[in-house]
Amino acid sequence: MSTPVPLAPPTWALKVEGLGRIYGDPSAASLAGTGPEHGTAVSPATGAVVAAWDVDFDVAPGEALGIIGESGSGKSTVMRCVAGDEIATAGTIALRGVDAGTTNIRDLDPSARRRLRLDQISAVYQDPAAGLNLDVSAGGNIADPLTAIGWRNYGRIRERAAQLLSRVEVPLDRMDDPVRSFSGGMRQRVQIAKALANDPPVLLLDEPTTGLDASVAAGVLDLLRGLLEETGVAAVVVSHDFGVIEMLTRRVLVMQHGRVVESGLTDQLLEDPQHPYSQQLVAAARG
Amino acid sequence: MRTDITMTTTTQPIADADTGPAPGAVLSVRGLRKDFTLHTIDGRTVGALHGVDLDVGPGEHVALAGTSGAGKSTLLRCVYRTYLTGSGHIWFRTETGESVDIAALPDAEVAQLRGHEIGYVSQFLRSQPRRSVLSIVATAGVARGMDREAAHDAAAAALRQVGIDEQLWDMHATVLSGGQKQRVNIAAGTISPPRLLLLDEPVSALDPANRAAVLDLIARLEETGTAVLSVFHDLDAIERLATRVVVLGGGKVLATGAPEDILRDPSLPLEVAR
């Protein structure tokens, strides 16, 4: 898809319009009877799972947008479609860094799509094993995206890896140890360092602190907050935890049964939620 | 549902005395209504504001008065967009002289205004966890366009002004007392003053000496041209600071006028004894 390049670049770094992902029959017949008003994401007609449908949002540089919802709401599906881990069934995904936002990156071939992950869009997953090779050293994991975009000088690669590891507060004397020997919190820090290696303009975070001990999670959250403030990256934070969303984001989408049921400023969503499901979520989180 | 949050500009429509902004006002609230629908409690609807109009000009301090439950804090939160407006308009004149309706502005634009032009100081400091006192205040300055070094110096000056001991500056705000938190909050709210400052009982937890220092700080905002809309617990503070008082009752404006007139009117339902 190619349209003339607009005169002014877009103000957003990432824009998603009408994003959908259906597992099973992708025809319109699968949509009927699914969504919050029907209480299910499973099509009664075709048995397909409408994991996400009609999802719209954009994120500006230096801004963080949250996506909240319980397990199965579709929030991680949205993230995987934007990251390119899955191919969306419908919709447009545009990055300002790719043809000034005029190309739907969903249409790119798989190798072009993979290349975007090197320096345009990075992801940090709940499970560090999804973003790292645990049998490779911390430095080696970070060197990966650097060499993939053409870094060749060994000294400079080590220097950049050391710089990133010290930014995420991983002791430099652990740089050559395999990540498998690291604690959960340290693995997550290495994953974040790797994601930032080539200064991507867009960073996707999927439950970045879920499963960590409270004190370790707090340290990783503080790190992420500092990075989001300093780097000017546009971030999407997917979490079921209001504490994480409140700390990292200014705006938020609420998802249920594959659809966005509400969007708003994060404090507004917490203080004056509109949708019945948002009110339930907030009541459960706040007690 | 529409989640389009593209940056757009809501400009002032053809001037309409009933729904448009007052000329020169920083804030013009028109016909503001707010209900809460509680889906978790059998869908009950609770009315809070039933058509409020008010204006605040540059350098003006408008204090909201009225009994508990009159809608004072609800009004402040609607203006800040922590609460969504049911109907009506909340016109805000931006730095560039443009009128935008906060009630209808896209979320991303409200977020921008909050950083730069609209400040909110609540009764409680809801600080983010594990952030130092100095960083909370300096970050507010950076958000309003100061460079980091200038913000750091201004934050230090503001903290001294509200009497926060220097040895507390690098501590996390969560360990402070209620009164200390409140002073940190006001220091963050007034550093590089925004065009519009919303104050919700900012001195409620302060002892007399600290209270006086904070009231001095708020009084000086007049010189910077900041428009202030406030809720104060005590009538002394209103008398000292307000250029105009708006009395709310049952979600409506009951009276508006100079503090000396309003506060001495025995027919008006005010929260505290005169």
What can you tell me about this protein's structure?
The complex is a heterodimer of chains A (287) and B (274). Chain A has a six-stranded mixed beta sheet with strand order 5-6-7-3-8-9, sandwiched between helices. Chain A has helices at 75-83, 110-119, 128-131, 138-148, 154-167, 184-195, 214-231, 242-248, 266-271, 276-286; strands at residues 14-23, 49-59, 64-68, 90-95, 121-124, 202-206, 234-239, 251-256, 259-265. Chain A is globular. Helices cover 36% and strands 21% of the residues of chain A. Chain A is α/β, with parallel strands linked by helices and 287 residues long. In chain A, α7 links the parallel β6 (202-206) and β7. By secondary structure, chain B is an alpha/beta fold. Chain B has a domain at 56-85 and 107-262: Rossmann fold (3-Layer(aba) Sandwich). In chain B, 31% of the residues lie in helices and 24% in strands. In chain B, the strands form two sheets. Chain B has a six-stranded mixed beta sheet, with helices on both faces. Chain B has a four-stranded antiparallel beta sheet with strand order 2-1-4-5, covered by helices on one side. In chain B, a hairpin with a 2-residue loop joins β9 (244-249) and β10. Chain B is globular.
What labels would you give this structure?
heterodimer, A: 287 residues, alpha/beta, Rossmann fold, six-stranded mixed β-sheet, 9 strands, 36% helix, 21% strand, globular, B: 274 residues, four-stranded antiparallel β-sheet, 9 helices, 10 strands, 31% helix, ABC_transporter-like_ATP-bd (chain A), P-loop_NTPase (chain A), ATP binding (chain A)
